[in-house]
Specification:
about 170 residues, alpha/beta, 5 helices, globular, Rossmann fold, single chain
Length: about 170
């Protein structure tokens, strides 16, 4: 998604948000819109997005085509990657296992400087084990516990966690 943030203290930011059309994605997009951010979303099935807002633009992210994914990330400084927290959702889990590493690599090659990864606390080890190997991109993992949409908005507006798991402490 492309989020253009304009405030008195913050310059324009370029942000893309991706994910399957699940409640995690919807919760994060809803929080971003509620905070006044313009959002461009890239998802697996754009026709399934049931959020209507003039500040929301929706496009397709062709995860099976690495070059197209890399091109889709081009021009963004931050990417928010949302993943289903329903561990029984076979489609989303297979998609995540098959494409997470390539999605991160495509974002890096496209020049994305920061990743905000949102997923199940039960999947944290999966995501973080790959993210910790990266030394050329900033990242934060946010679990889908509590007010995770608010934490994502906070990290978009004022990044506080760098190459780390978000914690309240």
């Amino acid at each position: 998604m492309l989020l253009l943030i304009e405030t008195a203290n913050i310059s324009m930011k370029e942000i893309v948000i991706t994910g399957t059309t699940c409640h995690v994605f919807a919760d994060v997009v809803g929080a971003m819109l509620a905070d006044g951010l313009a959002v461009e979303a890239l998802v697996d099935f754009p026709e399934r997005v049931m959020i209507s807002d003039t500040r929301l633009t929706i496009g397709h992210l062709p995860l099976g085509n690495y070059e197209k994914v890399r091109e889709s990330f081009s021009g963004y400084s931050t990417a928010v990657l949302t993943y289903s927290d329903n561990l029984q959702d076979r489609y989303s889990n297979e998609l995540t296992l098959r494409h997470f590493v390539d999605t991160v690599q495509a974002a890096r090659e496209a020049g994305v400087e920061r990743l905000i990864v949102v997923g199940s606390p039960d999947s944290q080890a999966f995501f973080v084990s790959d993210l910790r190997r990266l030394d050329d991109i900033d990242w934060v993992f946010i679990s889908t516990e509590g007010n995770y949409p608010g934490r994502v908005v906070s990290e978009v507006n004022n990044p506080a966690f760098h190459s780390a798991v978000y914690s309240e402490a």
